[in-house]
Amino acid sequence: MSNRAEPNAAPALATCPVSKTNSRKINRRTLEHLLKPDAINKMQNVQYYYCDELSCDVVYFSGQALPYFTKDDLTVKVFHKDNGDDVNVCYCFDWTRGRIKEQIRSTGQSTASQEIAQLVKDQKCICDITNPKGRCSLGDVNRVIKEVKQQLKL
Ligand SMILES: [Zn+2]
After folding, report:
1. What is the CA(124)–ligand 1 centre distance, in A?
2. CATH code assigned at 64
């Protein structure tokens, strides 16, 4: 998808005002899709960034001295900031940590990454607006599968 509508002058990375985490740019449409209406109303015409630090409540911030958006401002739980089983890893096809764990517990394997890869291939993936990080979840899904297998000693 094109980034033409995004401000181009902003630096590729910015530092989170709270955790100081180096953070990547995020498209406006991701915020517009995931923020609660009150938060959307507070959006400014600036480049926003996504903080992926687990311990940090900030999800989106701008490089400017403007209000940032925290976990409570989003309509979904953020994978990188919440270790719960009810949290989505893949937001397009509803793979939560719990669903992946359950599948591995009962079958010893997870089909999540193959299924997601196929759906991405079929262009049914809309991670750029459903996933708070604005990108495909496949890397996170593979990491979770690996972690669960390690926990279960598979
Ligand atoms: Zn942060």
Report:
1. 31
2. 2.20.25.270
